[in-house]
Amino acid sequence: MNWIPQLLEIAPAANTADNYLPIAIQLIFAAGFVAFMIAFSAWAGPKRKTSDKLENFTSGIASHGDARQPMAIKYFLVAILFVLFDVEVIFFYPYAINFKELGWEGFFAVLMFVAFFLIGFIYIIKKGALNWED
Amino acid sequence: MNAIIFSALSGVAMMFTGIFTTNKSAIRNVAVIALLGLIIVNLLHSYGIFVVRVNTHSMLQFETFGLFFNTLVFAATLLFVLLSGKDVTNAGTYGAEYFALIFFVLCGVSILTCYNSLLMLFIGIEILSIPLYILTGADKRNLKSNEASLKYFLMGSFSTGILLMGITLVYGITGTFSIEAMRPAVSVGAPNYGILEPVGLLFIFIALLFKVSAAPFHFWTPDVYDGAPTVFTSFMATIVKAAGFVSFIRLFDARAIEMGISWKIILPVIIIATLLIGNITAVFQQSVKRMMAYSSIAQAGFMLFAVYVNNDMSKEGILLYTAAYSIATIGIFAILTRMKDITFDGFNGLAKKHPVLAATNAVFLLSLAGIPLTAGFFAKYYMLAAVVKENGAGALWLVIVAVLFAAVSVYYYFRVIQAMYFKEGEPEITEVSGGFKTALVMLAVLIVLIGTFPSALLNWFYF
Amino acid sequence: MIPLLLILIPLLGGLINFFLKEEKTAKGWALLISLATLAASLAGIAQSGTLSFDAAWLPTLGSSFALSADGMAKMLTLLTAVSFPVIFIATNKNNYKNTSAFYALMLLSQAGLMGVFLSADCLLFYFFWELALIPVYFLCSIWGGERRIAVTFKFFIYTFIGSLLMLGGILYLYFLTPDHSFALKSFYHLHISAKEQNFVFWLFFIAFAIKMPVFPFHTWQPDAYEQSPTAVTMVLSAVMVKMGIYAVVRWLIPIFPEATAHFDNLVMVLAIIGMIYASLIAIRQDDLKRLIAYSSIAHIGLMCAAIFAQNKVGLEGVMIQMFNHGVNVLGLWIVADAIEQQLGTRKFSELGGLAQKAPGLAILLVILAFANIALPLTNAFVGEFLMFNAVFQHNIWMAVFAGTSIILAAVYTLNMVQKVFYGNTVPSTEHAIEAGSNTRAMLIVLVIVIIVLGVYPKPMIDLTNDTVSTILAAR
User: Fold this and answer.
1) What's the pLDDT at C130?
2) DSSP type of residue A12
3) How many domains does the structure of chain A reveal?
């Protein structure tokens, strides 16, 4: 049972295959838990089989029309812009970790990076990409 | 480095020009000024004067060859903007943005001419390609333009995936991205990396072959060139393609030995296939634009000789080829944008109605066909000479095959000349200004000058 | 300096001619320029020895703008310089749409031809070799007959393929030269192994054979001659085919002596087959232009065979005959043009009895016809005699077969004379009149040249003597 202390160890000394053992165990646990829960509920839950349950809409009203509704293109634009600017944040994580080591040079590099994003932001505002009404 | 920074900043500047003004001629003027600035900055760099000094951590390595190529490409772009600037702003809704994208492409080009790390190769190719996907689809209401754009994007991203796969394999086995460090002479004891490295390199080469539209990776070219607005086809077929070759040569410089004998067999096969498919298919085209697309594949076949032999002569050759081919193609496409009917028959009788257009177009076509006294002759001459110089009698068969295909190319280039000069017809043409004609004549004179004194251009290379 | 002038005068004159709007001025200017070229050429002949000119052109490539005029080059530049004014005067009455461009292109082609004959640098030679073709391509395609576009294109593609193959050969030799130079001298001093010679020889020979043309590369020629405007046909057959012969003598034989010795019989057999074949077809022709075209193939075939006999007599004969064939064929074309311009037909079946209507033209044509058959006292006799002699020395059987072409030549030439000028007049020739005074004057000049050179060929032999000895020494 000497792997239990290892499980509790937070920072591994070196990157060897052994160190990935806890992760592997965790993966097995996660997958096993999901599989177990699905299997268990299927086995333990009550079952009533009727043909109505295989219909699309079972709320009592016969289905009609198309489920796909036209949506304003603006949603897509905003969504894609959100993704774009959201990705920016990801780059701050590595910067935050290496903040000290990178020093001023790194600071200016990141500043430039932010400045470019800001320029992009100004550009889309000026272009009217975020105007909802037109 | 200065060219990279300046082109990126120019791109940003162009974006904002579009916000502050909708005056098309003002936008063009800004673009021309920015291009002039770009050329000056790059020339200053070639003479050792830096506007900004940046430590690139040897990710980039600047050599005369690459810098000279930059100058050449920027100058070609300047000619392109001077000649077809109006068409750029009229290609779609966003005049200024197209210029911005062109500057971003140039940024990609200037990375590709000096990369020293496979990562920079990847970034360069991406910066080069993504604006092109957009430019291809610039004509938003045109179904063909949309199709071309989507096709280019899908195929392009696929090839980028292959490029990444190749880089990954090479990195995995050598442990470095630097092509300099991979050089067998540099790496201590010349380690044997086994099979994975050639496989990785092969993947990278496939991606690059795709970019330069060499057979059998050429299938996107005709559709994309045909579908894209004609101005951007002109830009794509010349400047971008040439940049692809330079990146190819850089990589090959360092890594060709690793590929060994097998590569010396693969590449001639690719060259001949490219020449064959490009030339033979071009013969059967009815539209001049599509013919030019196939002819650009055929010309790529000739440019691949520079990759195949890779000596001093071929490097000079690729520079000359870039200049000759770009000038001629830009000119032909500029005339093509003015034609209402872009089939061969649309050119019937052009010489009578518009003698200047016809005469200059004839010079451009003669240059592409490689007739002496035009730049195209020396471009081909250098390529063939490089092959003979490197391989002697052993490569003479390749030279003979190449010249036979050059003779085939005469067939379709001369069809346009025949239509213009020897056939009767009423060509429909949009209004051409005096400035446009002057620019065309200047291009034609430039072609003849380079064709008479190629050393004048190449002497720059030896400064 | 004179070699440079010979190229520059027609080149600049031609470029200026593009901008002359008036039809009369364009014609006058072209004539003036061609006469100036003739004067320069005569001045060159007056000076003894080899004239040369050298200017830096592409030092990095080892190529220079080197021109040199030895005996053969002087003789051929004289032929070129004589032909153009004669053509201009004889066809003065012909009207062309866009006259200035026509004459401009004619002068440019003259510049190209001069360049070919004068270059002493292989890259320069290649340049001019192609450049002489481009103006002719435009001339034939714009002003030619009905099927001009396709026919001229065939002609162009043929010669272009040939010259590209030659480019491959030139490059190969260039890298063999120790100092990487295109100069004629460096090429002459090359020591090429027999195996290489046998290969590269063909790259050059095909280019030249297409131009001459030698059987089986001749198929472009009758069509091209027929469809071109006659003034251009004159240039093509009087001067341009000499490019091929000239190139074989200047470049092929001295550079590839072993290959020449190796393939001489093959080439000679091809040439002789061509002679007999072309003569036989000429007999069956109904078209004046096509007949002259095939007759030209036969004569060129003999020259080709004589060169490959590789002896002194043969080369001397070729030298004389190059000039004489140019003069004779020029005369024949002028007659053909005079008839076509006046009567609008070239078909024998629609011609006849012209001698009654145009006795002057008839007498001149008969003399030209005799020269074409190479009867004694005409210029062609000397050349053909020497050449047959050369072939005879080389191989008796070849000489026998080649000899039949003399008989065949007599058959088709006299047949032509008889059908066109004698017999009864037909409806189309009822109202024929004497040819114009310009035409007759030029024909008289040519006939005088024919007879003078037929009686006293020594100056021509002396002029080209230096080239013959150089070529034989290089072997």
Assistant:
1) 87
2) -
3) 2
Looking at residue B101, its pLDDT comes to 92
CB environment B428-439: b (16+ within 10 A), e (fewer) = ebeeeeeebeeb
B407 vs C126, C161, C171: nearest CB: C161
Contacts (Cβ under 8 Å, ≥6 apart) of C13: C29, C30, C32, C33, C36, C107
Please give the structure tokens belonging to residue C235: 């240039």
Which of B117, B438, B372 lies closest to B247 in space, CA to CA?
Answer: B117
**Residue B20's closest chain A neighbor by CA?**
A126
* CA distance to B49, B60, B61, C89, per residue, from B57 (Å): 19, 8, 9, 76
Please, which residues have CB within 8 angstroms of residue C91's CB and are 6 or more apart in sequence?
Answer: C230, C231, C234, C334, C337
Nearest CB among B372, B392, B404 relative to C126 is that of B372
Angle, helix C288-308 to helix C379-394, in steps of 10 degrees: 50
Distance of CA B156 to the CA centre of its chain: 16
Residue A120 sits in a domain whose CATH number is 1.20.58.1610
**Residue A65 lies inside a defined structural domain of this protein:** no
ipTM over 0.90: no
DSSP C92: T
Residue at token pair 């070609």: B76
CB-nearest to B12 from A119, A126, A127 is: A119
Percentage helix, strand, coil for chain A under 3-state DSSP, each rounded to 5: 70, 0, 30
Chain B residues in contact with A112 (beta carbon < 8 A): none
Percent of chain B with pLDDT over 90: 24
Strands (E), C39-193: 51-58, 63-69
Q: What is the pTM of this model?
A: 0.86
- On whether both A34 and A85 belong to a single domain, the answer is no
Chain C positions touching B403 (Cβ under 8 A) are 161, 164-165, 167-168
Task: Measure the CA–CA gap between B244 and B231, rounded to whole angstroms.
Answer: 19
Residue C400 in contact with partner chain B when CB distance is under 8 A: no
Taking Cα atoms as reference points, which of B297, B287, B282, B296 lies closest to residue B339?
Answer: B287
Tens-place pLDDT, residues C322-374: 888 888 888 888 888 888 888 877 888 777 777 777 888 888 888 888 888 88
- Domain that residue A125 falls in: 71-134
